[in-house]
Design goal:
Layout (H helix, E strand, L loop, with lengths): L4 E4 L3 H12 L4 E4 L11 E4 L2 E8 L11 H9 L4 E3 L5 E5 L7 E3 L10 E3 L4 H9 L6 E2 L3 E7 L5 E6 L5 E6 L1 E4 L3 H7 L1 E3 L4 H8 L9 E7 L9 E7 L4 E6 L7 E7 L3 H7 L1 H16 L8 E6 L34 E3 L12 H19 L2
Parallel strand pairs: 1-2, 1-13, 2-9, 6-16, 10-14, 13-20
Antiparallel strand pairs: 3-4, 5-8, 6-7, 10-11, 11-12, 15-18, 15-19, 16-17, 17-18
């Protein structure tokens, strides 16, 4: 195989596929439109206060009791994990004009998700360390994928400055949300209609979501026997969890109950103001002066979502591998959490999809 396998997307699926193929002696190139690696995995620090820790604005948990691929990878990479903090009472916010209700929470600790010390970004960073740095090309957006009559594949990319460039490929792994492929990448010859319809209708996981993390000097809610867990029907956050690192700073993160259209109409500052007010109502004066409010609206990230993703999806059955690629069969492969039917939306699904695609490529190269 003289030409490399080109992997489009430097998220968890793309990087895992690159590592597995590289270990088998297959040359790869990972192309990423963003100026960073990780895709929807994003862990941020408070500006100029990195000592407070890194906080997840994308995926936060995995469940080792039944997600074996990610558990094995975390152990292989020597990463440290810890169980989500839920000790203490929870709060229920049911009325805008009344204080929240305090409830005793009954929960089995084995059912809790597990977090990584240093945030989920530590998984991406550790994977990237196993891959030659020159293999990953950032700010490189794929515009077109062509195949001639002899089966030769050419990938046209746009660099940061707008310059177009052609690359030859043995095959292509599309490790990004399927809707981005349908919307932004041209194929010549065209992909089969059935496949295009399938990927255009496959909702982007997190595509309608936003996440906020509010950082404090300490997890003060624990001092009064609260877990940090809140369920709210009046919002703006409908679910809140303790996002504190294992020591030092305190943090609360939440998922929104207001739609992407409303969030985007309000703008980030107004959204953060509403969040701050909600936390003061829930937790009192200790919540009045946070160190920072970190906010990420995935629905407005054009490297993640398309317009159709703005509405929360309901059709979970649409997840899984797309149908036959026709002329592109054995040339183009789909990876990513949306293409795994068992663990779609989870990091486990991203890993399983990468391993599935790599196994197909290895089978083809061994013929």
């Amino acid at each position: 195989m003289n030409n490399p396998v080109i992997i489009i997307g430097a998220g968890l699926s793309g990087l895992r596929a690159a590592l597995l193929l590289t270990k088998q002696g297959i040359t790869c190139k990972v192309l990423e439109a963003r100026d960073r690696i990780g895709g929807r995995i994003l862990s941020e620090s408070v500006p100029n206060q990195e000592d407070l820790g890194r906080f997840d604005l994308g995926p936060t948990w995995f469940w080792p009791q039944h997600e074996r691929k990610i558990l094995a990878l975390v152990e292989e990479l020597g990463l440290v994990n810890f169980v989500q903090q839920n000790e203490g009472d929870m709060l229920m916010e049911r009325f805008q004009t009344k204080p929240p209700e305090r409830c005793v929470m009954e929960e089995h600790i084995d059912a809790r998700g597990v977090r990584l010390t240093g945030g989920m970004q530590s998984l991406i960073d550790a994977l990237a360390e196993q891959i030659p740095a020159k293999m990953i090309e950032l700010e490189t957006r794929v515009k077109e994928i062509c195949m001639d009559e002899a089966g030769k594949i050419t990938v046209t990319v746009e660099r940061a400055g707008g310059k177009l460039e052609n690359m030859s490929a043995a095959s292509v792994i599309l490790a990004l949300p399927p809707r981005l492929v349908a919307r932004h990448i041209k194929f010549s010859p065209s992909l089969p209609t059935e496949l295009l319809t399938d990927i255009a209708e496959k909702p982007t996981w997190m595509g309608s979501q936003a996440k906020v993390v509010v950082v404090f000097d300490r997890p003060f809610w624990r001092e009064s026997g609260l877990s940090g867990l809140v369920l709210s029907s009046v919002g703006p956050l409908q679910e809140i969890y303790d996002a504190s690192p294992t020591n030092g700073a305190g943090a609360l993160f939440g998922f929104f109950g207001i739609s992407s259209e409303v969030r985007q109409h309000m703008g980030p500052e107004k959204v953060k103001e509403l969040v701050a007010n909600q936390l003061v109502k829930l937790f009192g004066r200790d919540a009045e002066n946070p160190q920072a409010i970190l906010y990420k609206d995935w629905s407005s990230d054009f490297n993640t979502a398309v317009e159709e993703d703005s509405s929360p999806f309901k059709n979970y059955a649409s997840y899984g591998q797309p149908p036959s690629a026709g002329d592109w069969e054995e040339k183009v492969f789909f990876a990513g959490t949306e293409t795994n039917s068992q663990y779609s939306g989870h990091l486990e699904g991203a890993l399983q999809s990468a391993e599935y695609v790599v196994s197909k490529i290895l089978t083809l190269t061994s013929k």
